[in-house]
Amino acid sequence: MDGMDGARPRAPERIAQQEWPTGAAEARALQERLAPLVRHEALDSGAVSLVAGLDVAYSADDDRLAAAAVVLAAPEWEAVDSATVVSSPRFPYVPGLFAFREAPALLEAVARLRTQPDVLLCDGFGVAHPRRFGLACHVGLALDRPVLGVGKTPFVGRADEPAPQRGAWSPLVDGGEVVGRCLRTRAGVKPVYVSVGHRVDLASAADLALRAAPHYRVPEPVRHADRLCRERLAAA
DNA sequence: GCGACAG
DNA sequence: ATCTTGTCGC
């Protein structure tokens, strides 16, 4: 785990296969090495039509988990494809090391999709993370696709309360830098936290998150994925 | 040292 | 994440 010569990951696809961390210290080190590879790129959210939502559900009694990937089509957000995977966690839950727990199953679910989404939306964070490498970044680099993260509760940083109307937002700041956006997707309802995963910039990510959430607080793709993985867990 | 801490 | 019903309000 040290080959400090050519061991630096260049091909994102290798993240899920080689050097999978066995402990927390190792996992954090991997995040620090991969964080610089995250790219912020402008994305024409108006040209986006297929958005995948990713989420995971856990069993209450046994140690199973179900991951779901659902592709919805704008502007009505009807589901056009989906895939689920049932497995068990390969890493304990440690705040900040979320991806090592959920990414394997999520990536497998995405691999089973027959439709290639334009963007993927994760239930969690991207660069709004202690080491600037949350789940959405992990998934983004692994797939080398545009990914953004939407979290329901703040993890790092602080943000002022956005104005009460839908669309209002305030920057999420951590350590002196803007790592995300506190966005009001629904008037008078608690805001969500959007951050860049990979290959999108913050403005594009927030714009997409807002248009993907025309009725509820949580974006449709994530809501759908949430529902699907729960059903899958109950059925299997 | 202590508390906080995505799902 | 998960354990959990009804209820108030738009």
Describe the 3D structure.
Belongs to the endonuclease V family. InterPro entries: Endonuclease-V (IPR007581). Its main location: cytoplasm. This is Endonuclease V. Keywords: Cytoplasm, DNA damage, DNA repair, Endonuclease, Hydrolase, Magnesium, Metal-binding, Nuclease. This protein has 236 residues and is an alpha+beta fold. The chain has a domain at 25-32 and 40-149 and 197-204 and 213-235: archaeoglobus fulgidus dsm 4304 fold (2-Layer Sandwich), CATH 3.30.2170. The chain has helices at residues 24-34, 99-111, 135-143, 202-211, 220-235; strands spanning 50-58, 65-73, 78-87, 119-123, 147-151, 169-174, 177-183, 192-198. Strands 3-2-1-4-5-8-7-6 form an eight-stranded mixed sheet, sandwiched between helices. A hairpin with a 4-residue loop joins β2 (65-73) and β3. It binds two DNA strands through residues 55-60, 65, 93-96, 98, 101-102, 123-125, 128-130, 134-135, 149, 151-156, 193.
Helix content: 25-40%
Overall outline: globular
Using the coordinates shown, work out and report the CATH topology of the domain at 25-32 and 40-149 and 197-204 and 213-235: archaeoglobus fulgidus dsm 4304 fold
Which series of helices and strands comes N to C?
HEEEHEHEEEEHH
- SS-derived structural category: alpha+beta
For the largest sheet, list the strands in their spatial order.
Answer: 3-2-1-4-5-8-7-6
**What's the alpha carbon Rg, rounded to whole Å?**
17 Å
| Beta-strand segment tally | 8
